[in-house]
Design brief:
The two termini are 34 Å apart. Helix 2 crosses helix 9, helix 3 crosses helix 10 and helix 10 runs parallel beside helix 11. Strands 1, 2, 3, 4, 5, 6, 7, 8, 9 and 10 form a ten-stranded parallel beta sheet that branches. It is globular and about 50 Å long. It is an alpha/beta fold. The longest helix is centred in the middle third of the chain and has 16 residues. It is built from twelve helices and ten strands. The structure holds S-adenosylmethionine, 6-(5-methyl-2-OXO-imidazolidin-4-yl)-hexanoic acid and iron/sulfur cluster. Iron/sulfur cluster binds next to loops.
Amino acid sequence: MSISPDVSSQQKRAVVRIMKKQWSLDKIQALFDLPFNDLLFKAQTIHRENFDPNAVQISTLLSIKTGACPEDCSYCPQSVRYDTGLEKEALMEIQAVVDAAKAAKENGASRFCMGAAWRSPKDRDLDKVTRMVEEVKALGMETCVTLGMLEESQAKRLKDAGLDYYNHNIDTSEEYYSEVITTRSFQDRLDTLDTVRDAGINVCSGGIVGMGEEIVDRAKMLQTLANMEHPPESVPINQLVQVEGTPLDGVESIDSLEFIKTIAVARILMPKSQVRLSAGRSEMSDEMQAMCFFAGANSIFYGDQLLTTENPSESADHQLFKRLGLHPATV
Ligand code: SAM
Ligand code: DTB
Ligand code: SF4
């Protein structure tokens, strides 16, 4: 069946959603209910059908504008509303960003992700960010930015600069979302993701687990991602990094096995997406990370800092890759 070209992209998306296989919540919950070994076997089988099981994509993060964000995301050390002791920093100079990207490339990263603590970028900011994208791309790296909500014209400018991926997380289920963030809605997030997709940029979208949500919230978050017309090419699963001063500091930590199960369900629901074992690795043992890779995670953030918090050292990751016989994925 073909869809008439004169319908709007929103209508088109609605039709495709109806035609596309949709994951029901019951089916997803049934995956979470499987015995652990059955779930991991299923996830690993699907993983092998779609990817080299021993290849892991390597991305390096850089915070290009730090802190003083007007939003109230309860997990985030960069919100101006919480006293986390973080020093704010203005938008970085282009050369300093390019130098950091070069170093990341020399250390083996294939993608460079630039993050800014903005609700949304100003057009003036984008003059600089598009130059960063062009210059990092010219180094032969994949580029990714995460800048908050985007307008159509801004997405187009980023696409024209050669941007490969835009990261914008839905963070959690629609229901739990308002417990975590009040300054922008779940629908705002989905609208930005549609804008990014319509501009022809690859979508990177996932969420955070361990924020006090229920298993059903994790199931619903993954359902929203998997049922998109095109599921995101990249799905970061972050374990909450608890930061003193943020409202979520002190929340009960997620059980390690439940985290691994979330990765496995993401792999099964989105067989062709890169599932990234994202924030939280500093708090994980090598054995837990190994289980996450077995469950289908095939991407990491590499480098001793995430945006503002700690990540495992490069040498720790070298040793981990060696012990597990993993190798960096080639672009
Ligand atoms: N300001 C932009 C935005 O929120 O879209 C981009 C940067 S923001 C820091 C990117 C993502 O980092 C958030 O959506 C959230 O999923 C993740 N993040 C932030 N703080 C975190 C934390 N403490 N633990 C885990 N993930 C976190
Ligand atoms: C994503 O999903 N995780 C990264 C990246 N996208 C931008 C950010 C993690 C941030 C963790 C807290 C910090 O370092 O500030
Ligand atoms: Fe701002 Fe992004 Fe942090 Fe939310 S997650 S407070 S939007 S930097």
